[in-house]
């Protein structure tokens, strides 16, 4: 080390005199994991301060290093102890149940725990958490494939303050686990079971009865649920704000009507792939749900321009609207949408992929939507490049995502069909 380098190093006692320990700890408390580790390399004194448990109340290792090994979590648990309140281990696939047991034994004040995509986590770990971490309010177990009903029953017994839980793609979860959870954790406000095929009407009805404070509910691809359970949710959960029932193909307009009657504060509705919904259901929603901001109606193939007309009149806060594969939508529907209050003030994203009846006239109508930031036009064969250029001239900041796939040629009378390149031209 050169003389100039030595002169740059401040002795520990001088640092201590210039800044009291309490001030340094307060400053370090604002730093993330990476910055704390770097500060710990400044000097022995800073190392002690940087590793002080009070600075590690909130830890997000997803952005720091995804290949975290179990011993690292165990060391953090022992160092932080009762200070740790928030821990995000999303995607740390080397972390197993032993590490989470150590966490549970040392960090009794943990409130928010994200274990999504930690595929080695099993029921044993969650059972240990439920015994030692009664203050837990939010847990994310998405894609933890070993988690079963036993975990939900354990959480029900030991974590009565739980308000958020995500068990999406946990295929072992059934209505029995959800029922046990709902009975013991009646403060739940956010519940997600996306892709859980065994979550059925019984499970959802139990949630509605025991957890009436639910505000966010994601049942994407829980394809056995029917109008009975959604109607019960609508009736009991009057503060419902966000609902996703995409790919729940058994649902009909009865569900939409129930939501319209009971959930006036609904702001997000995702119903992609619910092919039985018609204009009637969406018209009812538009008349009563004035706060709708985001709607995904992809593949709601029965809706027509009447839905857009009523959304334009009744939903002035609409920001994002997905109409992809709604093949009955025409330029007239877009004209009415563009003329409504939402279009001029709020609408920022409009998705129209595979809407075969819309033409260049649609883009002319959208020129008045000054806040439009993105539009999707994949495989809209009647939209031209010139129309897109004109739209961009009026809305220079808009992002247009489109391609023009070649039209499938008719079969020839003699010989095989000629081969066409299916490559897309991105605009």
UniProtKB/TrEMBL annotation:
GO biological process terms on file: SCF-dependent proteasomal ubiquitin-dependent protein catabolic process
InterPro entries: F-box_dom, FBXL15_LRR, Leu-rich_rpt_Cys-con_subtyp, LRR_dom_sf
Listed CDD domains: F-box_FBXL2-like
PROSITE patterns: FBOX (PS50181)
Segments forming a coiled coil: none
Entries under Gene3D superfamilies matching the protein: Ribonuclease Inhibitor
Keywords per UniProt: Leucine-rich repeat, Repeat, Ubl conjugation pathway
GO cellular component: SCF ubiquitin ligase complex
F-box domain residues: 13-59
Name assigned to this protein: F-box domain-containing protein
Organism, as annotated: Anopheles epiroticus
């Amino acid at each position: 080390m050169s003389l100039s380098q030595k002169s740059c190093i401040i002795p520990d006692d001088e640092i201590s005199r210039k800044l009291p320990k309490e001030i340094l700890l307060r400053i370090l408390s604002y730093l993330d994991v990476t910055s704390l580790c770097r500060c710990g390399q400044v000097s022995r004194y800073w190392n002690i301060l940087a590793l002080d448990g009070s600075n590690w109340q909130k830890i997000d290792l997803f952005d720091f290093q995804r290949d975290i090994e179990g011993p690292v979590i165990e060391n953090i648990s022992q160092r932080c102890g009762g200070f740790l309140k928030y821990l995000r281990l999303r995607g740390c696939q080397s972390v197993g149940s032993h590490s989470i047991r150590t966490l549970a034994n040392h960090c009794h004040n943990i409130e928010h725990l994200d274990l999504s995509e930690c595929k080695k986590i099993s029921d044993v770990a969650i059972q240990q958490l439920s015994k030692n971490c009664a203050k837990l309010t939010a847990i994310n177990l998405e894609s933890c494939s070993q988690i079963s009903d036993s975990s939900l029953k354990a959480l029900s017994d030991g974590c009565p303050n739980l308000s958020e839980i995500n068990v999406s793609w946990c295929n072992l979860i059934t209505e029995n686990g959800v029922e046990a959870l709902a009975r013991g954790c009646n403060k739940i406000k956010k519940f997600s079971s996306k892709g859980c095929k065994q979550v059925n009407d019984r499970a959802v009805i139990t949630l509605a009865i025991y957890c009436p404070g639910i505000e966010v509910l994601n049942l994407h691809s829980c394809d056995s649920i029917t109008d009975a359970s959604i109607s019960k949710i609508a009736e009991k959960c009057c503060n419902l704000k966000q609902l996703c029932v995409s790919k729940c193909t058994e649902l009909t307009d009865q569900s939409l009507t129930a939501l319209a009657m009971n959930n006036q504060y609904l702001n997000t509705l995702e119903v992609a792939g619910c092919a039985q919904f018609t204009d009637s259901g969406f018209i009812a929603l538009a008349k009563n749900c004035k706060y709708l901001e985001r709607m995904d109606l992809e593949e709601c193939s029965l809706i027509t321009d009447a839905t857009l007309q009523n959304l334009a009149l009744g939903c002035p806060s609409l920001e994002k609207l997905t109409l992809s594969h709604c093949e009955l939508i025409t330029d007239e529907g877009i004209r009415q949408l563009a003329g409504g209050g939402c279009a001029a003030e709020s609408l920022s994203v409009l998705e129209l992929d595979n809407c075969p009846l819309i033409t260049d006239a649609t883009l002319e109508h959208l020129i008045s939507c000054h806040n439009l930031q993105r539009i999707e036009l994949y495989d809209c064969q009647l939209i031209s490049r010139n129309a897109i250029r004109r739209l961009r001239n009026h809305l220079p900041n808009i992002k247009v995502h489109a391609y023009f796939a070649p039209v499938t040629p008719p079969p020839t009378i003699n010989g095989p069909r000629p081969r066409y390149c299916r490559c897309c031209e991105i605009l």
